[in-house]
């Protein structure tokens, strides 16, 4: 017998020996290519294992009887997710149905589901494919990050970043869907914020943004059950409402007015919110959304014209209350200035119309300070150069506010000029001498005197004597020298403590 069959000479069992290709095998010369094939198979198997290990998806295998097992060793996270999926009866019922269909039809099937996990709703995509060994491969991919990104991109495309309402693009897309369609009961409702530009010019755009947000919240609250509100312009909003009669809209608008009234009665409100609105109604037949939108827009602006004047006056009154709340100057400040200015005016024998303007000016000259941040207005230390530039804008802000009020329009130019100096070094225009209105020259003295003799955030009050000396020293520079002489006379005769 050949020695290859001699048990005494049997060598260690190897891959070659198993397939009959050992050193002592007589088959080696005839089947050497089998060893190469086997090495190739092992290489493929190694690659497959490495590929499975690097795939981030959960891989499962289902047998013909529906028993599902994992195809790879899972991380702790994958194991927890797999366990949560396997414990969900609804998901497993759907999977078993799909596995059965795949085994019958031999085609790829895709399935999507969501599942709460670790206090977050996760989204999954499942792909189910038949293998060649009567097994079904199940690949489960966590799509949460992708879905979240898609939602963010959709929000960027269809939502307004400030109010989080739908944007104009979304509104126009919805209009396009119904345009030239045969529809019953379609309403386009438009809103416009009254006086937003005025608020932006006086209180600043940050406050204006808050007005827009407040308006959007009230509109959403009153109309969310009827349609999706969209911000279609800087101060405009729109809704497309289906299958509702005009009576429903009228009732919702009454509710809106009640909400606005409640909002405007809040004690800490720094602005009054006013909305104009108008709508158009399509009862039956083919709808022309261009015509319907224009009709709603016309009705809104008709409503706006009725409210605009009263809105502006209400805003000015609100701003005055806001100034009283935020300014460090007490109510006694304006009363003391009025008394001193009146005495100076009578000594100058000024006519009544100028006296009336002086009295208004003593009360409203600083109304523009409502547009100055508290961090600057109430700063206890010296203002920086940039902060001082902001502070000086209160003259122009005050002028804009006064121009919007029928009561203050007459003194708007005086509010603008109340910080001009006799020597021309004042602001914001740089007027000098008699080019400065007499009302402003009088105010400059009485305002400075009262400011010096009362506490301010940045210093304690000066004595009346010190304040008078300071004003006299600034005669012919900051103040009209003629008025300084009269001021000294009035203080000595009427107001200076004896």
TrEMBL record:
Residues 308-498 form the HD-GYP domain. It comes from the Bacteria. Residues 184-320 form the GGDEF domain. NCBIfam families: GGDEF. This is Diguanylate cyclase containing PAS/PAC sensor. It comes from Acetobacterium woodii (strain ATCC 29683 / DSM 1030 / JCM 2381 / KCTC 1655 / WB1).
């Amino acid at each position: 017998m050949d020695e290859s069959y001699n048990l005494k000479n049997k060598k260690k069992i190897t891959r070659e020996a198993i397939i009959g290709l050992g050193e002592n095998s007589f088959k080696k010369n005839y089947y050497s290519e089998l060893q190469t094939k086997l090495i190739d198979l092992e290489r493929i198997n190694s690659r497959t294992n490495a590929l499975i290990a690097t795939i981030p998806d959960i891989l499962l295998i289902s047998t013909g009887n529906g028993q599902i097992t994992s195809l790879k060793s899972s991380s702790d996270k994958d194991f927890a997710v797999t366990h949560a999926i396997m414990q969900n009866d609804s998901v497993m019922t759907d999977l078993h149905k799909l596995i059965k269909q795949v085994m019958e039809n031999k085609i790829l099937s895709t399935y999507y589901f969501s599942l709460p996990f670790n206090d977050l709703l996760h989204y999954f995509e499942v792909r189910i494919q038949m293998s060649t060994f009567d097994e079904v491969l199940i690949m489960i991919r966590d799509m949460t990050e992708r879905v979240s990104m898609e939602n963010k991109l959709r929000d960027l495309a269809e939502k307004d970043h400030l109010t989080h309402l739908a944007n104009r693009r979304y509104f126009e897309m919805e209009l396009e869907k119904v345009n030239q369609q045969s529809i019953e009961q379609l309403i386009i409702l438009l809103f416009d914020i009254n006086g937003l530009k005025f608020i932006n010019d006086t209180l600043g755009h940050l406050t204006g943004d808050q007005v827009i947000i407040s308006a959007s919240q009230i509109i959403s609250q009153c109309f969310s059950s009827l349609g999706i509100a969209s911000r279609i312009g800087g101060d405009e909003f729109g809704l497309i409402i289906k299958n509702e009669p005009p009576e429903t809209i009228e009732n919702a608008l009454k509710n809106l007015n009640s909400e606005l009234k409640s909002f405007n009665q809040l004690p800490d409100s720094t602005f009054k919110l006013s909305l104009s609105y108008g709508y158009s109604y399509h009862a039956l037949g083919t709808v022309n959304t261009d015509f319907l939108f224009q009709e709603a827009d016309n009705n809104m602006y008709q409503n706006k014209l009725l409210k605009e004047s009263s809105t502006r006056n209400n805003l000015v009154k609100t701003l005055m209350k806001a100034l009283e709340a935020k300014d460090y100057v007490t109510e006694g400040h304006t009363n003391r200035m009025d008394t001193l200015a009146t005495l100076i005016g009578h000594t100058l024998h000024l006519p009544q119309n100028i006296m009336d303007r002086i009295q208004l000016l003593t009360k409203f000259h600083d109304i523009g300070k409502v547009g100055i941040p508290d961090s600057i207005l109430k700063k206890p230390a010296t203002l920086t150069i940039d902060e001082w530039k902001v502070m000086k804008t209160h003259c122009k802000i005050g002028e804009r506010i006064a121009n919007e009020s029928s009561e203050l329009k007459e003194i708007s130019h005086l509010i603008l000029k109340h910080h001009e100096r006799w020597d021309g070094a004042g602001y914001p225009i740089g007027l000098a001498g008699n080019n400065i209105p007499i009302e402003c020259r009088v105010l400059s003295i009485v305002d400075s005197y009262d400011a010096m003799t009362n506490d301010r955030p940045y210093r304690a009050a000066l004595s009346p004597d010190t304040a008078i000396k300071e004003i006299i020293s600034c005669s012919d520079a900051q103040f009209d020298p003629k008025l300084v002489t009269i001021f000294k006379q009035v203080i000595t005769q009427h107001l200076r403590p004896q």
